[in-house]
Input
Amino acid sequence: MSLLELKGVGYQAGETTILEDVDLTINAGEWVTIAGPSGSGKSTLVRIIASLLSRTSGELNFAGKSIDTYDPIAYRRRVSYSFQQPTLFGETVRDNLSFPYQIRQRSFDEQRAVAALDYVGLAASDLDKAVIDLSGGQRQRVALLRNVMIYPEVLILDEVTAGLDAENKAFVWSMIRHFNGDDGITIIAITHDQSEIDVATRLVTLTDGRITGGTR
Ligand SMILES: Nc1ncnc2c1ncn2[C@@H]1O[C@H](COP(=O)(O)OP(=O)(O)OP(=O)(O)O)[C@@H](O)[C@H]1O
Ligand SMILES: [Mg+2]
Output
């Protein structure tokens, strides 16, 4: 069964049509790459999928039911959205990685945190490192990890590698491959990076708010 199903989805802001008649089906475990020119509606589309924005027309189903039937907070835990500028809080890496557990009144899974840090080239000893002492790229990696400490079903990545150098990009890529390949998390990743587009297993291209290429 398809995990996400969009039928004729549109988004209108006042008189302006930002998305029009978007049909897209995504199965559980897929890795979908979304590309297209700046302003073509990529972020708007994924924000709608993430329930951060409401479509103005069409249907959107998640796990066989309309998105409108889900509690938005519960839904956003299942479908997690990461954008480019990461914000870390608290004092340490541990504060950030344990936060998703705290808000669910669950105990911190330190073993999982250490395994996840290893995916992105960080060590167990980094758990107690102050976030102000991390490099920009390390901050980005920790922010991404925070979103997957409690497995989401869908991880939406909105240009998360933009502005990162090759080494940091490679870490983020390896992390995403683990989450998709080992943990079966469905990935929807927006990118402008041609090397990421070239290796996409499933590419969807948007132009002027419409899907103009790739496989629906
Ligand atoms: N609330 C809004 N009101 C009016 N216009 C909007 C609104 N939100 C987005 N837009 C416009 O909709 C278009 C699509 O924006 P969106 O952020 O989805 O593009 P994008 O494909 O993600 O671009 P980029 O690659 O630059 O991130 C842009 O022209 C943007 O200015
Ligand atoms: Mg965007």
User: Anything to note?
Assistant: The first helix runs from residue 42 to 49. The longest strand covers residues 2-13. The radius of gyration is 17 Å. Helices lie at 42-49, 72-78, 93-102, 110-119, 136-148, 166-181, 194-198.
